[in-house]
Amino acid sequence: MTLEQISETLPGYARDLRINLQNTLAQAELTEQQTWGVALACALACRNTVLSEAVKAEAAAKLSPEAQESAKAAFAVMGMNNVFYRFRHMAGREEYNAIPARLRMLVIRGHGGDPVDFELFCLAVSAINACEACVKSHEAVLREKGVKDETILAAVRIAATLHGVAGVLQAEGH
After folding, report:
1. What's the mean pLDDT in 28-45?
2. Exposed, middle or buried: residue 99 (CB in 10 Å: 0-12, 13-18, 19+)?
3. Are the C-beta atoms of residues 148 and 8 closer than 8 Å to each other?
4. Is the predicted pLDDT of residue 108 greater than 90, yes or no?
5. Confidence band (pLDDT; 50, 70, 90) for 61?
6. Quick check: 40 and 55 in contact, CB under 8 A?
7. pTM
8. 144-153 long-range CB contacts below 8 Å, 24 or more apart?
């Protein structure tokens, strides 16, 4: 199923998502690589096979193999980090913050893609996974690198929309 077919199958109650799906994948604030890298990382994070396969197919035509791997790496490492750092944040014990994570995360420095784009991918996945610590960390790095607020929010719009679409697909048996 393509993204267009997914959009057409969304029920009436999800009309806003249908429109947002089209609009968020054509935002002027993001490059094509940023758009499709964020979409790929987020679709995987939403854990809906129909949506993931559709986005993977479209992203393959728009992203270099390195950018695809970078987006997948952001999804994978944030899937781990978001759980760990969200726990530390929610537990609220300073003692936990003093203990090293001792989790391998070399991909953060060696993902093979554009560093700013990778941060956008990580931020968007962290928003889906509701990890406040990781959202704050990646948002701060992006701001330090001079990324505009509008660009950051454009990436999060994609995350929000794909998350909503994945939920509707799941609810409708897709």
Report:
1. 98
2. exposed
3. no
4. no
5. very high
6. yes
7. 0.95
8. 145/115, 145/116, 145/119, 147/116, 147/119, 147/120, 148/29, 150/29, 151/29, 151/30, 151/34, 151/120, 152/120, 152/123, 153/29
Helix axes 49-62, 32-46, angle to 10 degrees: 160
Structure tokens at 139: 């948002």
Domains belonging to the chain, first-starting first, are 3-171 (1.20.1290.10)
Span 67-81, pLDDT tens digits: 999 999 999 999 999
Q: Which amino acid is at 67?
A: A
How many angstroms separate the Cα of 79 from the Cα of each of 29, 47, 61, 84, 112? 26, 11, 25, 9, 19
* Whether the predicted pLDDT of 53 surpasses 90: yes
Could you report the per-residue pLDDT of 124-166, keeping only the tens digit for each?
999 999 999 999 999 999 999 999 999 999 999 999 999 999 9
Taking a C-beta distance cutoff of 8 angstroms, is the pair 41, 75 a contact? yes
**Catalytically active residues, by annotation:** 131, 134
* Contacting residues for 124 by C-beta, under 8 A, at least 6 apart: 38, 41, 42, 45, 155, 156, 158, 159
Cβ–Cβ < 8 Å for 120, 146: no
